[in-house]
Amino acid sequence: MPELPEVESIKLQLQKYLVGHTIRSVEIRNTKYAIRDTDVVGEKIKDIRRFAKVLSIDLSNSYSIVVHLKLTGQLIYRGPNLKKVPNLSSKVVGGLPGKHTHIIFKLDHDGKFYYNDVRLFGWIRVIRTDEIEKTDFIGKLGPEPFKDLTLNKFKNIASKSSRSIKTLLMDQEKIGGVGNIYANDALWLARVHPGKLSRQLSDEEVRRLYDAIEEVLRQGLKYGGASELAYVTPDGREGNYQDHTLVYDQKGTPCKRCKSKIKKIKLSGRGTYFCPKCQN
Ligand SMILES: [Zn+2]
User: Fold this and answer.
1) Where is the Formamidopyrimidine-DNA glycosylase catalytic domain (predicted)?
2) How far is the CA of 3 from the centre of ligand 1 (A)?
3) Is the predicted pLDDT of residue 34 greater than 90, yes or no?
């Protein structure tokens, strides 16, 4: 699932391509998505914001198109704001528009943006802009790295949990934006075993992990996100972080610090990668 760096990469591109343009029409190709013409057509796109893994496209009528891409949702732009149109990633299954294109927004400048989703777990809703932060899915989000997750808050959250630290990192109601890839890498960077109970982390480990979370997220952003499953940026390209992971998806390869073989276990049902020597 796209995590903070992936959704932030999408947000930054959408800001470039969409902001200032007016939605001329919307074509709904799948009735699962309840967007009424009257809510969005004729409205100008004022801003694109991100709340952890959720995007908000804010319109001039004080409503927002809120998008959660979940596993395989994609937002892709085609139009004159894309100076040089890159080749479409093969992760855009069926092409553009294709059989997995469910919504097409047409803009005033001959631009279009498409919502694709192969597995159909993602959702799009139109919500009053001033109510977004009161909704269940955003109102309940925990503090976010780079935003409101301070070291003290992080310490406090960890000290109150008896779950494994990796499971805690991925709990969106505790910390917003971190998913499996970056949780694995942050724990390796901080030299903390993913299965260690959160409240048993030393102050030093908490501090190292706090810094490590920001560092891996920064790397994720630098590489335009990790293209697992269906992740592409709105220009239709893949990110590259998957080629630069520290430990994620590296089972059997030598640890980048001590050369021990990276192990894979399951923790709360999720693939968990760690170095048995330097994370204990
Ligand atoms: Zn190691």
Assistant:
1) 2-122
2) 25
3) no
| pLDDT tens for each residue of 109-153 | 899 999 999 999 999 999 999 999 999 889 999 999 999 999 999
pLDDT at residue 82 is higher than 90: yes
**pLDDT of 1 higher than 90:** no
Ligand 1 center from residue 276 Cα (angstroms)? 7
Active-site residue, from 2, 5, 145, 234? 2
Q: Give 237's DSSP letter.
A: -
Is there a catalytic annotation at residue 3? yes
Across residues 58-76, what is the average pLDDT?
Answer: 97
Rg for the chain, CA atoms, rounded: 20
Cα of 217 to ligand 1 centre, how many Å?
21
SS3 content of the chain, % helix, strand, coil (to 5): 30, 25, 50
**Ion ligand 1 nearby residues (CB, 5 A):** 255, 257-258, 260, 275, 277-278
* CATH fold for domain 151-274: Helicase, Ruva Protein; domain 3 (1.10.8)
Rounded Cα distance between 12 and 63, Å, is 20
CATH 3.40.50.150 given to domain 4-139: no
Q: How many residues does the chain have?
A: 280
> Of 11, 4, 43, whose CA–CA distance to 25 is shortest?
43
Q: Is the CB of residue 180 less than 8 Å from the CB of residue 265?
A: no
Query: Would you state the pLDDT for residue 193?
Result: 98
- The enclosing H or E element of 48 equals strand 45-51
- Model confidence at 265, pLDDT cuts 50, 70, 90, reads very high
> pTM score, two decimals?
0.94
2 is an active site residue: yes
Q: Which of 50, 53, 174, 237 is catalytic?
A: 53
Q: Domain map of the chain by residue range?
A: 4-139, 151-274
Told to judge if 147 belongs to the known catalytic residues of this protein, a careful annotator would answer: no
pLDDT on residue 137? 86
